[in-house]
Amino acid sequence: MPICTTCTRHVPYLYTVYESAYNLRLEQCPSCGAFADPYVEHDSLLLLIDLILLKRGVYRHLLYNRGSEPRRIGQQDDVSRKPPRWSLIVPIGGTLTALDAFIRWSHLSTSITIIRNQGQCDHRIKDPQQALAVSPWSTGTIANFSRTFIGCFAETLAFHVGVIAACYAVLKFLSVVKHSGDRNTDIRNEFRFALIPLALFYSSVTKLFLLFLLTIWKPSTSVIPVSSSTPAYMMLLDDDKLDKEWIVRNVLGGMSAGFGLRVVLDCHPVFTMMIIVLGWLVKTSFGEQWLAYSIP
Asked: Is-contact 199 91, C-beta < 8 A?
């Protein structure tokens, strides 16, 4: 059953269709009086922007209300069920994992030394502009991207397995230990484990967007003179010492993933923070042992 994106209470329908699919009226939530789901009228671009901005309503729309049947006036109601959430994980996860692999591969291809042997000469390309001149369809390029994609896929799988296991433990703990403020809300009743990887993939849009911007606009390589009066802590913000990719991928990515999990689990932020930290530890330990080449 769909939910209200404002108060998370169950609603029978999100909108009503009159004669034509383009002639519709949004339903009001009987509990809070707001529109049950205003994202029904929004296009994909607005949904993407709100995902990047971490709007709670768009998460509830995509996770719980997407594909819900409307009330039909003058037509027979369609009793077909929504597609299972597991069927959405493969296309969404595959697309975002491929984008993540491309960003990692772009970062690696401009930071390592590319060696091309032509006869007896070795051509070492250290400049990023020269590295981009290499054919993207060469055997070495395709092999490097394939290896990065496999490593990114395995690392993402390890992170999701760790998060799902931690969510299972937290939910078991909450079911045993009844807190005074713990309530059995409608959004908690709609919980399915398939929502966890979907929430993590949707949350990664913010991280991937910022990483993609860092791939396009790289930091300046010009040397800025440093005065003797410059504080020591300001030196840590220098482009040569500050790893922006690591901060965006782990710090901001962890915060956005915790936000998405809180929408699904509807629990205290401390529990979501513990879940994300555990998943990050599993991913990091797995990556350091087997997939160090794929981590920027």
From this structure: no
- Side chain identity, residue 162: G
Write down the residue that tokens 């697309």 correspond to.
Answer: 95
3-state secondary structure of 7: coil
At position 280, the amino acid (one-letter code) is W
- Strand 114-118 to strand 15-18: parallel, antiparallel, or no bridges (unpaired)? unpaired
Residue 272: Cβ-neighbour burial (10 angstroms; 0-12, 13-18, 19+): buried
**H/E segment holding residue 215:** helix 195-216
Contact of 67 with 47, CB cutoff 8 Å: no
The single residue listed with the structure tokens 């990483």 is 211
Digit-coded pLDDT (tens) for 230-246: 566 555 556 666 778 88
Q: How many CA atoms lie within 13 A of 212 on its CB side?
A: 13
User: CA 69 → CA 83, 108, 264, 279, distances in Å?
Assistant: 11, 46, 22, 35
